[in-house]
Amino acid sequence: MIQQSIDKITGAGEDEISIWVDNYDDVFSDFDSRPYDSREFSDDFLEQVRRMARENATGRQVTLKFHLMPDLRDEYTEMIITDNLQAHFKRFAQRIRNDMNHILRKGIILSIVGATFGLLLGFLESKHGSNSYMDSFNVFVQPLFWFMFLTGLDYIFKYSREEKPFLDFNVKMGNANIAFSSFAVVTNGENGGVITKKKKAIPCGNNLRMAS
Asked: Looking at the chain, which runs of residues are DSSP E strands?
């Protein structure tokens, strides 16, 4: 079960996204039974991180901190999660860059071809004058070139605007600090011993819990 909250680190120049988990399996996909070093991350977990980062975007450095009970922590597993999670975000950022560059090139080509042939038709019409053949040709062909031109502009501007937030998120999280912390409250016992208590969880919907 994932639990979540966000802490603004005042004066530290960064934001902390804190995620509480019952165990390491909460971070990974339930449908992937491979070892942690090759296992896919949970879509629900990634979507929750994306939502939290989007709702609290400040442009500052991000620390993604996982909390769990101290007796469940394993340094080697945490190292795997850290390395694979950073690699995941960087890989998706590069994939989005490649897609954006491909669409950008396609948009530029469509716009240039559409504009070039549109101007060429205009030139031929002005040079040879208006006649039935030219008018019929323009009726069928000119809308096609206008469509190519406008579609190219749509690829260049609209697609870039739509994909940029996903690129920014993955770049930001790919450069985020990833840390682990024990999810517990430590108090002194009656005889000077140490008592470890799990923090109280407050239900907040979508199978998530806020820690308090």
From this structure: 2-9, 14-21, 61-68, 177-182, 185-188, 194-197, 201-203, 209-211
